[in-house]
Each structure stands twice: as C-alpha cells, then as structure tokens.
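hey so i finally got around to running the thing on that chain from the lab meeting. sorry it took forever, my laptop kept dying and i had to restart like 3 times. anyway pasting the input first so we r on the same page abt which one it is
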Amino acid sequence: MRFFVLAAALFAAVAVDAQSDGAQQNRIGRSGTFAVTNARIVPVSGPVIENGTIVISAGKITAVGEGISVPSGAERIDGKGLSVYPGMIDAGTALGLAEVTQGANATMDMTETGTMNANAKAITAVNPHTSHVNVTRVNGITTVMSAPRGGLISGQGTVINLNGATQGDMSVVPEFGLVINFPRIATFGGFGGGGFGGGQAIDFNEAIRRRDNQIDELKKIFRDAQNYARAREAYAKDNSLPYTAVDLRMDAMTPYIRGERPVMLTVERERDIRAAVNFVKEMSLKGIIVGGQEAHLVASELKANDVAVIYTNIYSLPVRPDDPYDFLFGAPGELQRAGVRFAISTGDTGAEVRDLPYHAGLAGAYGLSREEALKSVTLYPAQILGVADKMGSLEVGKMANVVVTDGDLLDPRTNIKHMFINGRLIPLTSRHTDLFDSFKDRK
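ok and heres what got predicted. didnt touch it at all, straight out
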C-alpha cells in the first residue's frame, strides 16, 4: 500500500511539473506595425474580401480591405493562398483556474467553500502561466471567458485574452457575469442515479419540492441584496439613518441585481431552463444560459425574454436513449432559426478548449450555415460578452486579435500560420509543439 501511495504521489508531482513548465509561457510575442497582404479576408461582420490587405498597428486594426496602401516601415506578411479571420472566443471555460484536474488539488482553483460566493473573482485566480494558454491559442482561440464553479452562487467570471505575463495584461473585462448553478429537478440520490453506486431514487414530486425550495433560497439572496443596496445608498445620502455594515458578498451582487451586468445560469434540461427564464424575468435580471442542452426546446421563451445561450453540449451524448444521434449537434441551428442569441463553447476547464473550432464545425454540418457556424465562435460570443466593440470581427478600430490560416478556420485539417493578440505577433509554439519536435525523428 505504501508503494502505491508513493507511486501516486510521484506521478502527481511529475504531472504538475510537466503542466507548469514555464518554458512556453509568457512568450508574449512582439509588437509593431504589420500588414498581411494578398490574403483572403473574412471580416465575419461583412462580405469576404477575396484579395485584400489588413494593417495592424499599436494593438489595433488600422485598415482592412482592397487596395490598402501599406505604411512605410510595416512588416509585410505575404498572405497569398492564406485566409485571415478574427480570433475565436470561447465564452464558457474555466481556463487558467484548473491545471491537473485529477491528482493535484493544489493546481485547482475553481471553487470556494460554501454556497454563496458572489465576491469571488475569477480574474484574481487566473494563472497566466498555465500550459493551457499556449496549446489553446495556437489553434486560433485568442479570448475566453473563464468562470468559477461550485455552490449555488459561484462567483464572477472574467474575459481574458490568451496572452500576457500577468492577470492585468490578459484582462479584457475583469468582472463579467455572476455564475449561478441554477437549482434543478434531480430524481437520483447517488452517483450515477438510483441503483448504481447505491444511490436512492427520489420521488419526482419530492424532487420538485427540493428544487423549488432552492429557488426560493436564491430569490431570498437576491432580495436581500436589493434591500442591502438600498440601505447603503440611503445611508450614503443621509448618515442619520441606521448604519448598514459592509458585506462584501452583497456589495458584489449590486451590479447584477440592477441589471448592469448579466447573471450566468448553468442549466441544461428543458424544465429547468423554463424555471431559470422565469427567475430572470421575475427578478428583472440580464440573463445568460450556460450549458443549454435542451435550450432549443424553450427557444420561444428565451427569445421573448432576450436570454442568450452559451451552448456547451456539442461533444455531449444525447440526453435520452431514444434521442436521435444528432440531437445535440443540431441544437445551435434550432436556436439560430428561432432568433435566439447564442454562442458555441467547449465548456471545458482548459485542456480541451483548443477544440472550439471543431465544436462549431460539427454544428455547421448539422443545421448551421458555414457563416453562422463561424459567427458562433467569433462575433456572437463577443456580443454576448459585451465586447463586440473590441473584438469578434475584422473592423478598423477593433483590437487586433487576428488569425491567419491555410484553410477554413473550422476545418481540423487547417493550420494556423500567423496569429496576433492585441496587436502582438504571437509565436506559434506550445508544450505540444515542443514535444512533437523532440520526438518526431525518433525511430
């Protein structure tokens, strides 16, 4: 037994060392003025330019189109045979908050103790040196929303660029979205449901009662936050009123209860999504559904209440045994045709965020047009995250998050040839490319 414990400890130590190797991190690239010429440019927000030029300077896109003159001193990149796209955005990750998910707890910082942690900020926990940054960005993903998990109210997500030596360097929106693990109807009592693992099945009516009690608890938290904010404002205007002590968790709730920032409700099944939409409506919140496995079945209500969906289920198995095999592949197309604002996300903690283009590509093969599939990982997540004025399309004045490829961005056979994040030309290296170079010539 001591041997196995020691072996497990050594394995975990080696895994942590391998994952946290800093050799690839903080290769933040170089700034300057760049011009990609003679390229096929896909702005996303407008028609494709078959032979054009894009100019990048001081971190911004300064020119894009046909017949663009290249500034003197600019570094030219010949784009003949290449395509230029905006960098992709994954709006539903925990990248930077998790490293080795099994066997190395010290590398995990996704959750806090307790059920209500509105004051927890993901930006303070993001590890800029995580190996996941490089392996993700070399596949064309330049930006992610990273959020905490666990409890009833997990904390606040953050929108970050995948480049920078510090959290401040990476930050695009430091505090975005209050993450709520919305109560659900669960009729299983143990691991894997009733039966397997010894779990005791729960009566459906009892499951509804428990869910409703949790929703009431959530509503009470929001109403308490509203009362707290009113009391603090009143005291600030008239200090003769009773003093309300500072509560960091309630302070953190203020911009969300006022609808200034969105709440992100992680919820999957149709009946639970309906309850989440009703909660958003009743509490007058700005809501986003994260997960949304059956969101397309509630599309009319989502559209009527302007609740967006960050869809994370392309790689999931069908929900029920009699669901068609493409039930989840086709869901984004159903949302799009119903007029629901949506984006496609991996929903991953970090290591597999690099697969984002293939999630969108699958949706594009099952109901989304090629143009809509591309928007689902570029312009649409930028709009949902409130950063469409900064990124998500190739337009003058926007942040230069730009990807140059030798093919369709969503095609697994495509290679990234050049990448810019915030105007910096990024080296296309990662732990994966280093390992490939180390072993490719071995026989």
